[in-house]
Amino acid sequence: MSILVGKKAPDFTTAAVKGDGSIVDNFSLSDTIKGKYAVVFFYPLDFTFVCPSEIIAMDHRVEKLKELNTEVIGVSIDSHFTHNAWRNTPVNEGGIGQLQYTLAADMDHAICRAYGIESEGGESYYPAGVAMRATFVIDQNGVVRHQVVNDEPLGRNMDEVVRIVEALQFFEENGQVCPAGWNKGDSGMVNTPEGVAKYLSEEADKL
Predict the structure, then answer these.
(1) Which InterPro entries would you find in this protein's record (predicted)?
(2) What is the CATH number of domain 13-155?
(3) Whether residue 1 has pLDDT greater than 80
(4) Is 51 a catalytic residue?
(5) Whose C-alpha in 70, 80, 86, 174 is 20 to 30 A from the C-alpha of 48?
(6) What is the per-residue DSSP string for the chain?
């Protein structure tokens, strides 16, 4: 597995189903996220178990992420046709419904390999070859600022994705770092010895 934090997010162009339901052959990550923040999140397979709960949870947070100038792109090794079929399957029948964001197809596994999260199987619960349950938050310059990977049975917290985007934007706007458990509206920390001492004297009991 690769660590991409601090590096340019690998670009890709691939077939995809967009949030408006249209199917395209040439969805471009770089064109889509130009001048925006982005969340690129990988999941193992369509028509599975933990995956739909994560995908729907992300959809419930898309409007908030849009307010934060953030595009959301889901990726798995399934085809765009399978993505479309899953979108057209009602939620109460195990589908994901009409999502508001793009699902990209990685049929040749090139994208998950570029991001370093193609499963090798082994001691993991993943079968070999699928994309791992990985999330990447990308800044407006196309640089990865956050990366997390869960093993297959462990669903992600999509509120944490929103929190990370808010924390990144707070840091960029204020120049203050975000301590443990920081949430929007909380105090930041000046990253000097004096700033640390001040923050801890006021906030340590709340950590």
Answers:
(1) AhpC/TSA, Peroxiredoxin, Peroxiredoxin_AhpC-typ, Peroxiredoxin_C, Thioredoxin-like_sf, Thioredoxin_domain
(2) 3.40.30.10
(3) no
(4) yes
(5) 70
(6) ----TTSBPPP-EEEEE-TTS-EEEEEEHHHHHTTSEEEEEE-S-SS-SHHHHHHHHHHTTHHHHHHTTEEEEEEESS-HHHHHHHHTS-GGGT---S-SSEEEE-TTSHHHHHTT-B---TTSSSPTTSBPEEEEEE-TTSBEEEEEEE-TT----HHHHHHHHHHHHHHHHH--B--TT--TTS--B-SSHHHHHHHHHHHGGG-
